[in-house]
Amino acid sequence: MSFFVAFRKEWLELTRTYRLLVVVIVLVFFGLTSPLLAKLTPEINKFVPQDSVISIQVLRPPIVEDSITQYVKNMAQFGILLAILLSMGAVAQEKEKGTAAMILVKPLPRGTFLLAKFAAMAALFAVSLAVAGIACYYYTLLLFEAMNLMNWMALNFLLLVYVLVYVAITLLSSTLTKTPVAAGGIAVGALIFLGLIGLVPAFGKYLPGELVTWGTRLMLGDTSTSWATLGVCLGLIVIPLLAAWMVFRKQEL
Amino acid sequence: MTAISIEELRKVFGTFQALDGLSLSVETGKVFGFLGPNGAGKTTTIRILTGLAHATSGRAWVLDKEVTADEQEIAKHIGYLPEEPAFYAWMKPGEFLDYVGRIFDFPPSERSARIKELLALAGLEEAAKRRIGGFSRGMRQRLGLAQALFNRPEVLFLDEPTSALDPAGRKEVLEFIDQLRGQCTVFMSTHILADVERVCDTIGIINRGKLVTSAPRDALLAQYAIPAFEVEVDAADGAGLARWGESMGKESWVKTVLVDGLVARVIVSDVEIAKKEMMASITQAGLILTRYEVVRPSLEDVFLQLVGEEEAQR
Q1: B144: which of B55, B85, B174, B175 fits an S-S bond (Cβ 3.0–4.6 Å)?
Q2: What are phi and psi of B61, to 5 degrees?
Q3: Shortest CB distance from B104 goes to which of A107, A109, A253?
Q4: Full-model pTM
Q5: What is the CATH T-level fold of the domain B226-295, as seen in this structure?
Q6: Under 8 Å CB-to-CB from B75, ≥6 apart: which residues?
Q7: Kind and range of the H or E element at B190?
Q8: Pairing of strands B202-207, B31-35
Q9: Which stretch of DSSP H or E encloses residue A1?
Q10: Cα–Cα separations (whole angstroms), residue A151 to A68, A144, B92, B135, B207
């Protein structure tokens, strides 16, 4: 019961402070422009001087795969950026301003407070990715051809899990620190760390980036799976959340 | 019956000892005034009692439940107003109260009625459609009090509840606290001695993390407050009064002399000697008296005396 009360407040905050709107607009923009950019890239390249380095690219007719690759790249990059920006103040700002102290002396368990924040962010990205996915699917259909709908949904689900890993990590850093900036710094550090160890193939295939690769493969007709990576990434969501709860329940406000 | 009980509470921040073996108890239904100089440990005590901070050692109970063990159960029965209440700037006051009501699991109709009642109590009916982000400090303080009262708490913790209010707002809040007497236990920290004297029936004085004394207000005044003498002189005698005050301060039967313009307040250690000697001294100094009276001691006198004695013992 208290979870829904806290979730309702979080969702209301995301809508009232226009965060939901901003995320939807940003992701839908890139959802729409991905197929458009893929379609127009050869036309744009025609304006590049023939002796330029860029001109060495093969100027072939655009295909649906170009749209998918563009979409995945955009969603992954902006998804992470928005995940960190929106989550870094979630707990730290409430501690800094004193609202956490006002609310948590009431019968609202601290774990519920944290879980509601994560759930609201998950809902925000689920809605935004869904709208962006529909927009991209529709434009791709208009400009290229129909894509496999189930695979498209699977790709967007994997993108959601990918983003939520960074939401969970940022929530943990927001719990550990006293200011949103410090929380953002730690989250960016974690992002760089994961990126660096991802360069080692033995580790990389289990890290969040592999989810994006798996989704892209799926769309390109490759049926090879990465279930272990999905398991690791779900762990990378659950473990930071548990750690945040363990820290937060003992923390002085 | 005891509403709040504290045993040997210690709280250390690095090298600073905020609470140094604090022990006290507050009876149910009392309005308890928690007095102390800045940094004495008042807010730290309230934060520990409300579960926002943890004691380094010692134990505390609220409504017979230990604060470290039964936080969620205690939370259902307490209200808390911090010194600077914080809100979500994007919310309207009714929305914040609605959020609080939902946390306390109030049914919708009861919640709605309580919100109206509390908005009226806080004098925020006209501001109900404005965002809290645009509220003045006084408005925030009144909304803070309203949210602290939502669940009709058995114990209400107020940290400097009147510090941000104008005189009219202060009067209203104090009258309201006065009305709570007998209905719930109020634990109120403040540095405004007049507020404590006005509404609190029991007073605890804390200094450097230790309880100096705790007693019913009247008993405290009777026990510690020796009558003070107030002397007011003619407008031409201001400088003479200051000189007289200085010389009086050296007398063995005088504890302190406070001269403020044309008025001198003399706190003595021996009333009988004072009654005999003071008038003679004034005449000898050639001061033209316009007023001379033995005044009732104020809590401020007691507070300064007790804290002063405590400091002297260190």
Answers
A1: B85
A2: -130, 140
A3: A107
A4: 0.83
A5: Alpha-Beta Plaits (3.30.70)
A6: A105, A106, A107, A108, B51
A7: strand B185-190
A8: parallel
A9: none
A10: 11, 17, 44, 51, 69
B54–A252 CB contact, under 8 Å:
yes
Residues 6+ apart with CB under 8 A from B121: B146, B149, B176
How do residues B246-282 score in pLDDT, each as one tens digit? 888 888 888 888 888 899 988 887 878 888 888 888 8
CATH architecture of B2-216: 3-Layer(aba) Sandwich (3.40)
Q: Are strands B57-62 and B210-216 parallel, antiparallel or unpaired?
A: unpaired
> In terms of CA atoms, which chain B residue is nearest residue A93?
B88
Residues in chain B within 8 Å Cβ distance of A101: 52, 82, 86
The domains of chain B are located at 2-216, 226-295
Predicted complex: ipTM over 0.85:
yes
Place of tokens 């939901």: A20
Closest Cα partner for A75 from A178, A247, A215?
A: A215
Mind listing the pLDDT tens digit for each residue in B135-174?
A: 988 889 899 999 999 999 999 999 999 877 888 878 888 8
- Token pair of A205, please? 């295939």
DSSP line for B204-273: EEEETTEEEEEEEHHHHHHHH---EEEEEE-GGGHHHHHHHHHHHTTSTTEEEEEEETTEEEEEES-HHH
Is B105 an interface residue toward A (CB < 8 Å)? yes
CA dist., res. A154 & res. A229, Å (int): 14
- Is residue B73 within 8 Å of residue B151, measured between CB atoms? no
Yes or no, beta carbons of B99 and A107 under 8 Å apart:
no
Structure tokens at A162: 């990918």
DSSP line for B22-36: EEEEEETT-EEEEE-
B244-248: Cβ within 8 A, 24+ apart: B244/B281, B244/B282, B244/B285, B244/B287, B247/B281, B247/B285, B248/B278, B248/B281
Tokens of B105: 């699991």
